[in-house]
């Protein structure tokens, strides 16, 4: 009994370790995609796109581990919540990888295009979203609700940047029709980053559930502040359950 | 999560069939149940879990006063069924046990025919007519999902049945006296998984008409069949509530340790 | 004295086994010897005529003994079984129960001649039954009562607790449970115990000595409970002590018949019990 319990706990730790590895890997994809975009680096962008296969592999492997633990250990209480959380979180992390690929594709498309002005807000968004992802995963491993709160706060900042950027790009497109092509691409990238932040918020909410056992929406603010989001395309559904 | 003081017991919604207030049970000097207050909802399955010797079986046996059989047992506090105290001086214990049926850990058919086993209770309570008995026997065996397996061998000894069949016969025997409450004291602990599955299915069917309280060592059984779960430890009711909540998100550290298998 | 060398486990085991074997054999020897002497000395006295003849044979004594045994069983069974049921099913541990048990143990330890004298005082004289079959059977019933109670209690204990619980949990009263579940399941065991117990009635002399046995041919068969009767044990006792002219062989033959009767009863009980054990499987 003691020994099987110990083995189970080791397997749970290993599961979290694998999730952390996947998170770190996807975070690096996001960073590379952002850098490729800013620096017109086609090779880096291709590297990012190729890396997605690895991320998908990690996703499948972790899901399999979860299924095996559910089947063989019939976990209860906190253990059950941990495994359930990991299963949900890998889906969000995997989506972050997909968005990184989308950003990398945009980088390839814009490789030959001179930006109409130096990129500022997009690298900033990349940086914030990366830090959010890292903190959310740290929160998961450390069961740290304070970190969860910080992640959710940062989402507001990302939302503000997204609205600001959207407004600027709209205006520029009206004034300078010749840059519409790059403006649309950049608008999409900003949109991808905003979505990434939403997925990271999902992760944070899951961590809170894992700790408290309460399933709740912790970040309702960006719904209230975004009246125009209703007609925005919902590529992965609403951010909340 | 709290650990020391016990959480206040929340009253489940809907009709309450059984309740206890400040129920204590002593065996000589040993305080086996400590001030248990709980509400058990009607026509639901309530599971009592906890390690061996935690008092869950003793608690179950308060509802039909089977503890009376133990000479050293002494009860204080109240046990109510439909609001009436079963430990009242005026309570007719035999009548109480007719209302509150019990299924035991090991199948215990009488060494007589299947028919006579089921007819035992009705005969006790005065049914003599052959046709009436036939009817009760068939209805009870159907109710216990055993009829199709034994309808051609009703005159055979009940001891020839398999363990799982014997346990369903025990259930049929209880149903035959038309109780309102079914107490089940680890009804599957002597059965294989298939027989266990059948009994669990049966319990869920019976829930429509009966208030069921089951003591089980098997947390997974509790989580599969019950709507409410109580966790006992050393004579204390540590936590009582929604089964989903108890197994997904217990409020008490001790419950958490137990359901996660981290005890001892 | 120097310390003994430590014996090897094998040697000590051999010694222990040898001692145990000897003890076991010592038990067999007297039984075998009695049977052998009895058959050797009484063998030529044994004949169908001896068993079946009224005037010359043992028929009156066999009939008397059988009547005594049957009547003893009839008298002791209701009291013994009822007492056993009370003790095992109803009584709550307390002073009364302790007293009853003490009485039973002491009753079992009373010498049989004391029963005889007690029977004479109570049944023959005080109750004015006279020396007769009924008085003797009553006395004998007292003698076997502790055995009947103990055997019946044992049989009741063999009925599993869970059957009682099942019945009570269905709303049966204690008495309903006893009548419908406990007694029917204990009855075979009780009967076995009863046969073994009253087997003693066939072999006892002292209790009937003063209460109902007689020797002679004036009334070879008792016609009512109020008549005296001839018993094998009493006849043997009188033959052996007062009639030196009775042939040795005949005395030994009588003894053989008596032993055969008791052995037959024990055997019957054993067979009965074995068959029940096979039929019962809880």
In terms of DSSP E residues, the strand content of chain A is under 5%
State the CATH superfamily name of chain A: Phosphate transport system protein phou homolog 2, domain 2
Domains of chain A (count): 1
How many helices of chain C? 11
Largest sheet of chain A: none
Mean pLDDT of chain C: 86
* Radius of gyration of chain C (Å): 24 Å
What class would the helix/strand composition of chain C place it in? mainly alpha
Helix-strand pattern of chain A: HHHHHHH
DSSP strand (E) fraction of chain C? under 5%
Q: Helix fraction of chain A?
A: over 70%
Detailed description of the structure:
- The complex is a heterotrimer of chains A (241), B (264) and C (282).
- Chain A is an all-alpha fold.
- Chain A contains seven helices and no strands.
- Helix content of chain A is 80%, strand content 0%.
- The radius of gyration of chain A is 19 Å and the shape is elongated.
- Chain B is an alpha/beta fold and 264 residues long.
- Chain B has a domain at 16-103 and 181-259: Rossmann fold.
- Helix content of chain B is 33%, strand content 25%.
- In chain B, the strands form two sheets. In chain B, strands 6-7-8-3-9-10 form a six-stranded mixed sheet. Chain B has a four-stranded antiparallel sheet with strand order 2-1-4-5, with no helix packed on it.
- In chain B, helix 3 runs parallel beside helix 6.
- Chain B starts with 15 loop residues before the first strand and ends in a 5-residue tail after the last helix.
- The model of chain B has no long low-confidence stretch (mean pLDDT 91).
- Chain C has 282 residues and is an all-alpha fold.
- In chain C, helix 1 (9-42) crosses helix 11, helix 4 crosses helix 6 (133-158) and helix 7 (161-169) packs antiparallel against helix 8 (174-203).
- The relative contact order of chain C is 0.15.
- The model of chain C has no long low-confidence stretch (mean pLDDT 86).
- The B-C interface holds B 64, 66, 69, 71, 94-98, 101-102, 104, 106, 108-111, 120-121, 124-125, 159, 170, 173-174, 177 and C 92-93, 160, 162-163, 165-173, 176, 180-181, 185, 280-282.
Task: Detail the topology: elements first, then pairings.
The complex is a heterotrimer of chains A (241), B (264) and C (282).
Chain A lengths: L1 H37 L3 H32 L3 H33 L11 H22 L2 H31 L4 H33 L8 H4 L17
Helix pairs in contact in A: 1-2, 1-3, 1-4, 2-3, 3-6, 4-5, 4-6, 5-6
Chain B lengths: L15 E12 L2 E12 L3 E5 L6 H5 L12 E9 L2 E2 L7 H7 E4 L10 H11 L5 H14 L3 H4 L12 H13 L5 E5 L7 H14 L4 E5 L3 H7 L2 E6 L2 E7 H6 L4 H7 L5
Parallel strand pairs in B: 3-8, 3-9, 6-7, 7-8
Antiparallel strand pairs in B: 1-2, 1-4, 4-5, 9-10
Chain C lengths: L8 H34 L5 H5 L6 H32 L4 H15 L2 H15 L6 H26 L2 H9 L4 H30 L2 H4 L22 H11 L5 H32 L3
Helix pairs in contact in C: 1-11, 3-6, 3-8, 4-6, 5-6, 6-8, 7-8, 8-11, 10-11
